[in-house]
Specification:
The structure is a homodimer of 482-residue chains. With 482 residues, chain A is of the alpha/beta class. Helix content of chain A is 41%, strand content 12%. Chain A contains 16 helices and 13 strands. Chain A has a 7-stranded mixed beta sheet, with helices on both faces. The first copy, chain A, has a 4-stranded antiparallel beta sheet with strand order 9-10-13-12.
């Protein structure tokens, strides 16, 4: 017997042979460019700087200090190892009670303690990724759609729909009103879906918004709640950036709005996604949470959590860390301050060369407006510009089209996943590019690619000593090879 | 506006409102009985003893000793905390390279190093639960079936089919040949499925077998491999009990069989499920592994692993522990010896009152033959007997019907999740019950329930001093309240 080993995709499922995962989107192309040639301050100063990753690296000094001071919190220290056995063997999908209690308390804290969460409604999942999928499985049959305002997190398509067969249907928002979500836009999307015979089962929100870095105000949230109640459809609020709000207006959770709405709202329709990946900066720990006000969803989600439970080693550590109120208070405050400073440095640095950003007060990123640099107002031109930024300027920012933005020329720029020196290099590269581009554009309109190729050679000569550079020649780390 | 909050299941998915999860099976009823009244040697000596949980608690002294001696292995010790940041932030779905390397090496070790595993084919998942589901998503479209020999692990129904829509189709095995899997049985199931218009896409095996505690011999594995190649269908081998084999014959992995088969086998059809929940005894850590010889499956499974990645805190610890070869060698040997001793004590204790068990040499359980105690050879009688054992004898063993066994009267008894004193109590209860039952049966055939209710009152008077009891009155822990 002989077999053709090249037939690897024969006999696989449609899911395995299809492209529903979406990893081939532009968003991921940038990641690959970074992975092939990652920037390193000391070892690879010509590499691509990763600005496509919404990581929060700014407060690990506080975390590490806490960890060393709290050896009982770990099952791997002489002080904590006697708990190793019971923790390692624990596999109840309700989770460690102390973990659920601590997470519920923490969720209240990052919402200003204006609302409380019931530990019995805390359901674990493998990150927010798993939480979003679990809710899709619970709330939508294959083909059913949830409305989602644009621009939105690219991996929602994978998380919400890849394995569930559920759909997302866009609610078009744009810069004319700073990408605000209006009742009119929701109604328009709902009606359009109806005419296409698509059953709309709910709304999926991300608040604070990735990629916008904005928070939804109370009135908007009230409008949306009225909308879903009027239509008798669900709302899923992904609030994983709740604690990244660094200035006014404060973050308002859907939990607050349903509290004030009282009986004028059907709580069975309301579900929250949370995680410790952004607010604490622990994406590796895979702590995702489904919080539902619907008992049947809590029960079903808990059963589904078997596919992505949080490691009890991690539950145990998080239980101790998050229930240390003094530490948590200090961490939340300090983290917001550091994010605010970083955000300020970035927006000012961009403004100096005339680059605008959407006014924002949350998140680990900026929504950068490069519309004026587009050859023409199309997504083709956006991707053309983006490829230059990734491959020549060597910054892995993310193009708006990968967020399903309806308007070309916007880019998401992450700023909290790097140290101050890398920020300086990144800002210098962007500014140099923009100045060069403006000049080049005038001379040679429509020939973007030609201009870009000369960029890497001339950027340093021209701009290293630029008076606009926040680093200029002061830092010995900023070398001519950046 | 007012809302009827009792309508919680309105507008949910069919999955959320259906019973595809199967948690209401008899298997789970026993767990609930235990949870309502758990046995505790010092605090609740009249409680239900948990013998339905295939946990491996016998070697935690070795683990705890290793953990304390290796502080660098943890990110929560002064020696290891400098790695905290990079570990907590790491979210690449390929996993930490050192983790994949260590797992690949460990997988070879528990298979006697007769076969090697490629770290690049190691895909993480949320326990074996997640691994089985990922393979179902990759290999089967909704409605497609995999053949599975009976009796089999009850939660396969949930893991394989609940969210994927894939089916399991039974291959009937029974005690006439010690539940061996034959080509004839496979062909019969395959043909029967065809006549029912069910598309058979593969075979799902569990080797060593839960609940049988047996290993598949080389010839059987060769037959099965020929079968799946003849039919051009997949094989998924769940080998999560690989390291629980405590005596001859040794464990043979499907990996060995395809190695010897060479080109006479299509490797693209072969996939392995592994985990550290049983072999190491860490179910809480949720370390599941998909290992496929099919590149397309590796790629797709890795994308799906985003829904259930292993916490990097746990990856980091496991990487250090499993790459300590001296420790691993000692652990594997010691664990097998302790399991063998426990298995021997249990089988001997049962044999003394004439209770037979299927001859086995692996696993964390016995397959106990109580056919002679059935009122009649039906599953109704099996469940009747089982309810007496759970509620009156207060042992949460698992009835064969919950494992889809084709023959009534078999029960799975877990023996590695308790300490020696609890074993003595459990054995005493079983033996007392069987002796009582045999006597009662003669006097009062067919009135099992009446007999059972008197059991708890008389068992201690009659049997505490029984010469058959391994504990008799020697242990101060074995009190009259057991």
């Amino acid at each position: 017997m002989e077999f053709n080993s090249s037939n690897e995709t024969q006999m696989l499922s449609r899911m395995a042979t299809g492209d529903g995962h979406g990893e081939n989107s532009a968003y991921f192309e940038g990641w690959k460019a970074y992975e092939d040639n990652p920037f390193d301050l000391s070892k690879n100063r010509r590499g691509v700087i990763q600005m496509g990753l919404a990581e929060n690296r700014l407060c690990f000094d506080l975390i590490e200090e806490w960890v060393v001071k709290n050896p009982k919190a770990s099952i791997c220290t002489p002080q904590g190892s006697e708990d190793f056995k019971e923790i390692a063997i624990f596999q109840d999908y309700h989770g460690l009670p102390e973990f659920r209690n601590a997470v519920a308390k923490f969720m209240g804290k990052v919402r200003g303690e204006r609302v409380t969460f019931d530990p019995d409604r805390i359901v674990m999942s493998g990150g927010a990724t798993g939480a979003v999928e679990i809710l899709a499985f619970c709330l939508a049959d294959p083909g059913d759609a949830f409305l989602v305002p644009t621009p939105y997190y690219p991996a929602f398509d994978r998380d919400w729909g890849w394995r569930t067969g559920a759909k997302l249907y866009p609610v078009i928002c744009d810069s004319s009103n700073d990408f605000k979500i209006t009742r009119a836009a929701l109604e328009a999307a709902y009606n359009k879906a109806q005419t296409e015979n698509i059953r709309v089962k709910g709304v999926l929100l991300n608040n604070p918004s990735n990629p916008l870095g904005t928070v939804l105000d109370r009135d908007t949230l009230r409008d949306i709640l009225r909308f879903i109640n009027d239509k008798n459809i669900h709302i899923v609020c992904d609030e994983i950036y709740a604690s990244t709000v660094f200035s006014q207006p404060e973050f308002v959770s859907i939990a607050e709005i349903i509290q004030e709405a009282g009986d004028n709202n059907n709580r069975n329709l309301v579900h929250i996604v949370y995680s410790l990946s952004k607010d604490m900066g622990f994406p590796g720990f895979r702590v995702g949470i489904v919080y539902s006000y619907n008992d049947a969803v809590v029960r079903c989600a808990r059963k589904m959590s078997s596919f992505g439970l949080v490691s009890t080693q991690t539950q145990h550590l998080m239980a101790a860390m998050l229930s240390d109120e003094r530490f948590v208070d200090r961490f939340i405050q300090e983290s917001a301050e550091r994010l605010g400073r970083r955000h300020g440095a970035f927006t000012r640095g961009l403004a100096q060369v005339g680059i605008g950003t959407l006014k924002s007060n949350a998140g680990l990123f900026l929504w950068m407006d490069l519309r004026r640099l587009l050859r023409e107002p199309t997504f083709e031109a956006e991707l053309e510009l983006w490829r230059i930024i990734v491959h020549d300027v060597k910054l892995n920012v993310s193009p708006g089209c990968s967020f399903h933005c309806a308007e070309p020329g916007w880019f998401r720029v992450c700023f909290a996943n790097m140290d101050d020196d890398t920020v300086r290099v990144a800002l210098k590269r962007i500014r140099a590019f923009v100045l060069q581009r403006k000049g080049g554009h005038k001379q040679c309109r429509g020939r973007a690619l030609q201009i870009s190729t000369s960029f890497s050679r001339i950027m340093l000569d021209d701009f290293l000593m630029s008076p606009h550079s926040p680093a200029s020649a002061k830092s010995p780390m900023v070398q001519a090879t950046n």
